[in-house]
Design brief:
nine-stranded mixed sheet; globular; five-stranded mixed sheet
Length: about 260
């Protein structure tokens, strides 16, 4: 694309084009021209949808896998649909999947047991949302970006536009959902031959299901009724851990399960 062609596009179209080209050609896009291109979260979500539509990232009208989360209960949650091709069952192998950063998050994923309409989502509270979940599992999110810049140097809205810097998702075996004392939940992450990282009760929201009302309102407003079986992964218990090519990554949550991915 020539400079004159780029300058003739709207800011959101320019960001969308850059992200689509990066995904399509397996290259990294320079984020610096777009530092001020996205003015709001609504703009970032519009870019997410535009990229997904242009590249046909989802087989279904409503994406079946999502990520959601936030730093605490006072913050707005951030949401992103996860491309179908990058959702894998454990034990998984990344193979030639394009990854720049190979950053790891250990998470709990939840699965809806029934369809959720916009009116149902609007009425949800963190307490009543538990009734919608039929299963849970351990998951590993591979965090990555289509932008050339380091993750810590990227503006938050450019991260959000890039599917909240999602790389791939590994899911474990599903077990029946139950309300738990998450403050006592133990999580262990192992990367290669490095020392295991162990955490207890470290989910930023206290309860992974707490974000369900915000997430479901977002999805129903953008896509309509959310089908039963839709999955959301809910935020890291171990922060952002660094891995390298050829590392074996393993995550275990006591009483929930274990997953692994070979990078």
């Amino acid at each position: 694309m020539t400079r004159s062609t780029t300058s003739s596009l709207s800011p959101l179209t320019s960001v969308t084009r850059a992200l689509c080209d990066a995904r399509r050609n397996v290259v990294l896009a320079d984020a610096s021209p777009f530092a001020d291109a996205i003015a709001s979260e609504a703009d970032a979500y519009a870019v997410q949808r535009a990229v997904a539509s242009e590249l046909r990232l989802f087989a279904d009208a409503v994406p079946r896998h999502w990520k959601s989360g936030g730093p605490d209960r006072e913050a707005a949650m951030a949401h992103a649909p996860l491309p179908d091709a990058g959702v894998w069952q454990s034990p998984a192998r990344a193979g030639q999947w394009p990854l720049q950063h190979r950053a790891i998050e250990a998470e709990i994923a939840l699965r809806l047991g029934r369809d959720v309409t916009a009116s149902m989502a609007a009425a949800l509270t963190p307490d009543t949302a538990h009734e919608l979940i039929d299963a849970m599992t351990v998951s590993i999110e591979l965090v990555d970006t289509r932008w050339r810049q380091p993750l810590e140097a990227l503006p938050a809205l450019l991260k959000l536009a890039d599917m909240t810097v999602h790389g791939a998702l590994v899911l474990g075996e599903w077990i029946p959902y139950e309300r738990r004392d998450w403050s006592a939940q133990r999580c262990v992450a192992r990367i290669g031959r490095g020392q295991a990282v162990e955490r207890v009760g470290t989910h930023s929201l206290g309860d992974p299901a707490w974000l369900l009302p915000q997430w479901l309102r977002h999805v129903t407003q953008a896509y309509g009724t959310v089908p039963a079986g839709t999955v959301v992964t809910t935020g890291s218990w171990v922060g952002l851990l660094k891995a390298a090519a050829r590392d074996l990554v393993e995550v275990e949550f006591d009483g929930v399960g274990r997953v692994s991915v070979q990078l």
